[in-house]
């Protein structure tokens, strides 16, 4: 009974803002000190990417995007042209992501 | 001496940022212009009839901006920050605060793509700090039970708290990483916000007014610079905006913030912006009434300098 109650609690009452992406930024020396991390929709019907939010994150810094379940693109770029791109699928959990910047 | 006092009084009264006209009467709109200051009008001046290209765009005084109808990605009259050049290559809606809709009563955020609840989308509230301490442990929490964050930097812990140190008097250190400011995007309920105080202005004037308002509240230079850099890019190009400033009085109810520090002072401001596609006119019924009362009356005043001063700015848009 207890197990059923616990299960019911988790299934029925997902906490607010519980889904999304939590990440940190790693940059090699040749990249700049700060990255802009962008999150956009990744849907077939959007031939052009629909930008939802972006945030500036220092090297080693952390960020979190609170997202509805769905498919997204996480892109990061910096002033020196270093980049990162990953397509992610968000479900009801928080995905952990390491944004590893790479030089061109 | 009397003459000197008179001259100084006159200069003060001509300061376009001072509240020369405090409140407007019924059936008026409170507007601001950097040259003329505040005034109460019934409708904005119509652009010249032969000015086809400048219809519905930017500041038409004194000369029309002939390039305003070009999409921002193609033509940029002023230098942009580095991230805007890069963002332009990938995102057609870079020059909007997020997913945007033009189909509602007012243009606004397209809520279907965002998590949480609340019809006010607060974009990029940034929290800056000024402290007398070279190094001081701090925690900053959002104690409300229901919160609809959209983004944070750095990430919050499970108690919706940032913990770390204030370093070099004006920066945050969280998990050994330095941040110029703490950032969040959030959805907020509209109900406890005020929609009678503020002003209407053209887009460019609106940015200037907000910068002036932040200066009046003694925001640090880096906060002003960040504000201008960000919102010159991210404030959508509509010809007119009505601004409804929310300060401590409103925000402490809508989104309380708490800290472990003593001898602390918060200055909070969030500018709720309603874009207008054409000249605001009192004869046209509005869902959100035009502002008629002076917002300076509710602006927080910091007469005493505290050990630690947090300053927060943000710009918000309504959902469609």
Can you summarize this structure?
The complex is a heterodimer of chains A (104) and B (320). By secondary structure, chain A is mostly beta strands.
Characterization of the model:
- The complex is a heterodimer of chains A (104) and B (320).
- Chain A is mainly beta and 104 residues long.
- Chain A has one helix at 2-12, and strands at 20-26, 34-41, 51-58, 62-66, 70-78, 83-90, 94-100.
- Chain A has a 4-stranded antiparallel β-sheet, with no helix packed on it.
- The longest helix of chain A is centred in the N-terminal third of the chain and has 11 residues, at 2-12.
- Residues 1-17 of chain A have low confidence and may be disordered.
- Chain B is an alpha+beta fold.
- Chain B has helices at 2-14, 82-90, 203-216, 221-234, 248-254; strands at residues 29-33, 37-41, 100-101, 108-109, 120-131, 135-141, 148-153, 161-167, 171-174, 177-179, 182-188, 199-202, 240-247, 258-259, 264-276, 308-318.
- Chain B has a 7-stranded mixed β-sheet with strand order 7-11-5-16-15-13-12.
- Chain B is globular, with a radius of gyration of 20 Å.
- Chain A binds chain B through residues 16-17, 19-20, 22, 36, 38-41, 48-68, 75, 77, 79, and chain B through 82-83, 86-87, 90-94, 96, 98-99, 113-116, 146-156, 174-179, 183, 185.
């Amino acid at each position: 009974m207890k197990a059923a109650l616990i299960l019911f609690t988790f299934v029925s009452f997902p906490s607010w803002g519980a889904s999304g992406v939590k990440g940190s930024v790693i940059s090699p020396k040749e990249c700049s000190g700060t990255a802009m991390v962008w999150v956009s929709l990744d849907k077939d019907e959007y031939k052009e990417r629909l930008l939802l939010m972006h945030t500036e994150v220092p090297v080693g810094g952390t960020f979190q995007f609170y997202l509805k379940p769905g498919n997204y693109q996480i892109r990061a770029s910096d002033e020196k042209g270093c980049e990162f791109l990953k397509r992610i699928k968000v479900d009801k959990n928080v995905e952990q992501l390491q944004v590893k910047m790479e030089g061109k | 001496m009397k003459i000197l006092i008179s001259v100084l009084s006159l200069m003060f009264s001509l300061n376009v940022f001072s509240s020369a006209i405090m409140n407007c009467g019924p059936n008026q709109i409170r507007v601001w212009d950097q040259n003329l200051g505040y005034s109460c009008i019934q409708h904005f001046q119509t652009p010249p009839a032969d000015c086809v290209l400048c219809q519905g765009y930017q500041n038409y005084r004194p000369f029309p901006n002939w390039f305003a109808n070009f999409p921002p990605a193609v033509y940029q009259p002023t230098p942009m920050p580095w991230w805007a050049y890069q963002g332009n290559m990938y995102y057609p809606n870079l020059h909007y605060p997020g997913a945007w809709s033009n189909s509602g009563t007012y243009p606004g955020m397209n809520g279907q793509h965002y998590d949480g609840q609340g019809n006010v989308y607060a974009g990029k509230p940034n929290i800056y700090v000024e402290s007398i301490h070279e190094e001081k442990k701090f925690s900053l929490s959002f104690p409300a039970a229901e919160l609809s964050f959209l983004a944070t930097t750095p990430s919050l812990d499970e108690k919706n708290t940032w913990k770390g140190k204030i370093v070099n008097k004006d920066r945050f250190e969280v998990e050994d990483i330095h941040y110029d400011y703490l950032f969040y995007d959030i959805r907020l309920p509209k109900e406890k916000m005020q929609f009678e105080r503020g002003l209407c202005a053209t887009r460019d004037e609106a940015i200037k007014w907000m910068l002036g308002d932040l200066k009046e509240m003694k925001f640090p230079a880096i906060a002003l610079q960040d504000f201008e850099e960000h919102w010159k890019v991210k404030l959508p190009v509509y010809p007119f905006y009505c601004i409804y400033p929310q300060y401590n009085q409103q925000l402490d109810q809508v989104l309380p913030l708490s800290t472990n520090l003593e001898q602390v002072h918060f200055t909070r401001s969030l500018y709720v912006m309603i874009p207008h596609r054409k000249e605001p006119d009192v004869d046209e019924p509005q869902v959100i009434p035009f502002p008629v009362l002076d917002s300076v009356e509710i602006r927080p005043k910091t007469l005493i300098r505290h050990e630690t001063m947090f300053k927060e700015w943000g710009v918000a848009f309504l959902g469609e």
